[in-house]
Amino acid sequence: MTSPSDRSGANPSASNPSASNPSASNPSATALRARGAAALATAGIDAAATDAGWLLAHVLGIEPGRLILADDPTAAQAAAYDALIARRAERIPLQHLTAEASFAGVELAVGPGVFVPRPETELLVEWAARACADVAEPGAAVRVVDLCSGSGALALAVATAVPRAAMVAVERSPSALDYLRRNAAAQPSSVADRVRVVAGDVTDPDVWAELGVVDVIVCNPPYVPAAAPVSPEVAHDPAEAVFSGETGMDLIVELVPLLAEGLRPGGVVALEHDDTTAAATVDVFVADGRFTEVVGHRDLAGRPRYVTARRADPATVQGWKP
Ligand code: GLN
């Protein structure tokens, strides 16, 4: 039973024999961060110090880089931080606790019901920016589609990075669509005005009829093999955004022929895949027969991560499928 006099720390000199801080002042930001990092490391979290810093910065309403300069947190802030550390130690994703994710410089609302974007997918933004520079007349609009858009991470980051991108984001999950629409609306109008959201399944012919023929496609589909061991955090992502059949290839196999139809001749696609399915993904593009320049790419950790391909020109492809 806490009496009003010792509840808030407002009177730090009030007697409290069990207080862990004998000087009776609040712990510094640095001390709180170290304490949280130790708890997260004990919970098996690799990036424990980074996560503790993000959570403390979130509670203090500052950028993580400014923690070193922060005033000592109040007792209420310390309590809020400790509560977040306890939840993170239960392996709830960091981004669900802060309700936001940073992706290629774009801030996104995320939480239960939508896939948390991963840093390795940022490579597709860089690729798309280069692809957009190559595929159309300088200055002309570039038609770009993001399939399986989720929170809108790729769509919004590419639209931000490429001012002449006319972007369409396709997503079927109602809960993901809520985040996607909210995230699109939160961008500056110079970006938001160039992003159209299409609700639908990426294997639905009606969706493709609505998209028309485009210059560039990016896609981070569900691709993890159903029985693959995943971290406790991944269990908080919607399963339909993560897994795709026994080998992880179910959606990719269905999608590649649709990509060939949706890209103009010379148009290009980047498709993320599991690190166990690089060769299988390349094979699907090659076997389709309508792509050239099928190339596998690694992520910054050196793992095979995405395949790019160019829609061939019908005139130059042998055995062309009409
Ligand atoms: N690479 C992601 C993970 O680590 C899965 C991404 C996906 O299925 N698109 O869980």
From TrEMBL:
Name of the protein in question: Release factor glutamine methyltransferase
Gene that encodes it: prmC
Binding site for S-adenosyl-L-methionine: E171, N220
Enzyme Commission number(s) from the entry: 2.1.1.297
NCBIfam families (alphabetical): hemK_fam, RF_mod_PrmC
One matching Pfam family: PrmC_N
SUPFAM superfamilies: S-adenosyl-L-methionine-dependent methyltransferases
BP term (GO), one: methylation
UniProt keyword list: Methyltransferase, S-adenosyl-L-methionine, Transferase
Low complexity: bias regions: 10-30
